[in-house]
Amino acid sequence: MTFSNVEHARVWFITGASSGLGYEFTKKALELGDKVVGIARNIEKLNELKSQYEEMLLPLRLDVTNRSDVFATVETAIKHFGKIDIVINNAGNMIMGMIEEFNEDEVRSQMETNFYGAVWVCQAVMPYLRTQGSGHIIQISSIGGLISGPMSGIYSASKFALEGFSEALAQEAAHFGIKVTIVEPGGYWTNLYLKMGFTVQNQEYDSLREELAKQYSTDSVDSDPKLAAEAIMKMINSENPPLRLILGSIVYDLAIENAEQRISTWKEWESVSRSAEHGIPAPEGYGIIE
Ligand code: NDP
Known about the structure:
Layout: E1 11-15, H1 20-31, E2 35-40, H2 44-53, E3 57-61, H3 67-81, E4 86-89, E5 95-96, H4 104-132, E6 136-140, H5 153-174, E7 179-185, H6 192-195, E8 197-198, H7 206-215, H8 225-236, E9 244-247, H9 249-268, H10 270-275
Parallel strand pairs: 1-2, 1-4, 2-3, 4-6, 5-8, 6-7, 7-9
Bound molecules: NADPH dihydro-nicotinamide-adenine-dinucleotide phosphate.
């Protein structure tokens, strides 16, 4: 589907639009004739793209961790284009390390961008989407939002948190005709891994690190971000977009295997789970939730 008529162009609000996946989403939307509000802290690359797409692209400098700036930027976007149809919460970063190695700032900074940033954007856009009675919010999670592993525990925590609030948002937003989709990409060649942070290593973990290094394949398993943009476009243009969409074969297989393992463990422990429930009258003072 192409929207070559400017009048009918959709308006996208994409965070982390200056690089990697977000940049490809931005280019794809512009190529199809849609309008884009491109968000990043450094908008130099978006300004270069503007020379090609002119008034169809509005680059705005924003750090998504600043809640009041997020609200002001969404307002600027609405004043400029009159509406927002598609929101992609894509801005993100990654810090790797063993849980014990993380300092407080590192834990908080991971949550600030990957979780709080997305919450602020959703809170800022929802009033406009509710009034419109339409819109589609896309949350860029990760396979790390479904499965956690050594060295990526805090990154995963931020993506699990993103998924947790997005499931609730999807149900609340559906009431107003707004769609929410959580996207779980596998590996793509972007700046994420070039810019990723590392904790200060604790030597006690050296042997575990060596074990993990043996498990990692040296073969390339990452893909061209353009493929992710094409998949996102298919999903957005579909009649009935899903709550969750996995991008990539390797992560697809991992997710299925992980879900099957969860079900099998739940079933193995079913009798213990069921034994922990036997309804009794509410203790005094407990009211019904209003
Ligand atoms: P990149 O590093 O290439 O892009 C990250 C983008 O986010 C940049 O545009 C960056 O711009 C922006 N950004 C980072 N922090 C902030 C902030 N505080 N405020 C506003 N913008 C910010 O990485 P990717 O394209 O790979 O990452 C995009 C998303 O995809 C992330 O959420 C990541 O977790 C997820 N993902 C990526 C995978 C991959 O293999 N690449 C796999 C699974 C998930 P600037 O620094 O100028 O602000």
